[in-house]
Amino acid sequence: MPSETTVIIPHWNRAALLDRLLTTIGQQSVKPARVLVVDNGSTDRSADVAAQHGAGFMALNENRGFAHAVNRGVAASSTKWVAVVNNDVELHPLWLQTLLDEAERSQAWFAAPRLVQLKVPGQLDGCFDLLARSACAWRAGHGASDEGPYAEPRTIAFAPLTATLLRRELFERAGLLDERFESYLEDVEFGLRCALQSLGGVYVPQAEAYHAGSSTLGPWSPRMVQLLSRNQLLLAAKHFPTSYMWNVLVGQSLWGALALRHKAGAAWLRGKVAGLRLFSGVRATASPAARTALDPILRACEREIRQLQPASRRETYWRAYFTLAP
């Protein structure tokens, strides 16, 4: 019997990736009630691939970003659960069953699997997200080969919407994704709104998904850097108090240095200019109570970043950030 789950796949071109994902969805030990490809105006064989696998296909005709596609998919679903899955993911056959079992057992609002790098077996792509007062997020476990602290289930506040299961009611309580983000950090901002309402989730390492990563735009591509650079400021403007100004300045400057090292400095600057244009219109949308509740959430995240990155292996960015903005 199918589960009360709709699998939502935001998609734009890359029909071959979609074909592999849909194949692994078809191999799940428990079947979803519905699979819906929300297409951002693909010009390849994506519609044919979806039809071959019996998946629904919602054609949006233009690319308005990941957040808009997810929101359209959620609006079109009526099941108890929705799973948001990137098109560059392949799923273990027990992925859905394991997430459903743990989410129901723990009465969690969402459940995130262990993400393994598709091209580097044995190396983690990430497990859950942590957000610093710099408005920069860290994917916990990214690049780790020793699973260590990531081998056991745990409660989490931020789940990457890469292959995550969520109660549909969560979107009614916390709201849909903020479409101003388009793509990148939209899931972190959504997670922050959930955390502010104490709507927490679980990380379930027994559920596995295999992620290629940055398959649509490419790692450190100008468009990716520009969107991420802009959205960091958008997130800060929407939620952060002025007392975080030093943390944001330090964190954003250090991230700009990383972009420059990857020959994406111009894209970083364009993103910051775009973010500053949005800043005044977005500023102060959070209530004073929400801004007060924010501080313990982000300080707890920063403590975890320190704990999960031993000083001997701490990434250069975080070593510098915690030195300059303790």
How many β strands by DSSP?
12
Count of discrete alpha- or pi-helical segments spanning 4 or more residues? 11
* Whole-number count of domains: 2
Q: Which class of secondary structure composition applies to the elements? A: alpha/beta
CATH level-four homologous superfamily name of the largest domain: Spore Coat Polysaccharide Biosynthesis Protein SpsA, Chain A
CATH class label of the largest domain: Alpha Beta
Q: What's the CATH architecture name of the largest domain?
A: Alpha-Beta Complex
Q: How much β-strand is present in the residues?
A: 15-25%
Low-confidence stretches: none
Q: Percent of residues in helical segments?
A: 40-55%
CATH topological fold name of the largest domain: Spore Coat Polysaccharide Biosynthesis Protein SpsA, Chain A
Largest sheet: 10 strands, mixed
Structure notes:
The protein has 326 residues and is of the alpha/beta class. It is built from eleven helices and twelve strands. The strands form two sheets. Strands 1, 2, 3, 4, 5, 6, 7, 10, 11 and 12 form a ten-stranded mixed β-sheet that branches. It has a two-stranded antiparallel sheet with strand order 8-9. A hairpin with a 6-residue loop joins strand 6 and strand 7. Helix 7 runs parallel beside helix 9. The chain starts with a strand and ends with a helix. The mean pLDDT is 92.
